[in-house]
Amino acid sequence: MRSALVIGTGLIGTSVALALQARGVQVYLEDHDPTQARTAAALGAGTAEPPPGPVDLAVVAVPPAHVADTLAGVLRRGAARACIDVASVKGGPRRQLQELGCDLSAYLGTHPMAGRERSGPLAATADLFEGRPWVLTPSPGDDTEVLNLALELVALCRAVPVVMDADAHDRAVALVSHTPQLVSSLVAARLKDADETAVRLCGQGIRDVTRIAASDPAMWLDILSANPGPVADILAEVAADLDGTVRALRGLESADAQKRTGGTEGIEDVLRRGNAGRERVPGKHGAAPAAYEVLAVHIGDQPGELARIFADAGRAGVNIEDVRIEHATGQQAGFIQLTVEPGAVAQLTAELRERGWSIRR
Length: 361
Hints:
CATH architecture of the largest domain: 3-Layer(aba) Sandwich
CATH class of the largest domain: Alpha Beta
Strand order of the largest sheet: 2-1-3-4-5-6-7
Order of helices and strands: EHEHEHEHEEHEHHHHHHEHEEHE
Oligomer: single chain
């Protein structure tokens, strides 16, 4: 691949362009808002000038509602040897292209499973896709060259290719991406009119649950409008669980011993099913979750503290598997949670305490 045309210079499109430019591909940028394309170009994502002729690969990175029409235009004008889109829904655009009478031999639907709460070219990074799954949805009759160019793009972005059926993909992202967004927003919405005293008690748990609720509503309306059926199906199942949980909680506050017992069993059931589901979420490098230990270390909010604790862990010869920071409300301090192999706990604890760190297991 020597040249590419990226249509749509938001977070995903600009990140693709930055990754390709960094690896020697000449990228041309196009957007319905020329200012946004020029912004992406100023960031080093390519040029906002039109390509002099057909490019090797066109990447359509526009909102789902506009994917089919944009793809049809690219295919009809022969703008590229191959054309892909990166929309979060795959079945609908392909069916729409078929209805428009387009020759789909040069097209392949794809979806990089990466993103951020922020949108637009200024949020883009060349490493956004590194180590992330990138779904490819080939169909019988697709040109092998198109698949090869798509795989080359995934490799240049340092992502991990995953081949799926288009409709199976849409059901999968409804479960692991679209429904969590709505559930996060529903929980965060409870905070909108909550008493200030309650909000001041927010800890890491509520921050974790509501993190993605900060996402752009307009972007998510586009995504959910393109995949409403599968999302509604899963939310209906969640609603049934919620109804059962509400009944169980009402049972716990009942004076009837039998109802309290039923309530206890109901709550335990949903919590244990949650445990079992969480254990299936892939861990580090996509492998099965490993059994790690967590050390919580008190850390001040001063420059250099994070660098110091990582350096001290390095001196102990301990690899940090994961890290998160729990901020203390109203204080210039918090806890950094270091996830390590169980066998490294004693060594790391001793090293950090020797260097003056306060540790909570």
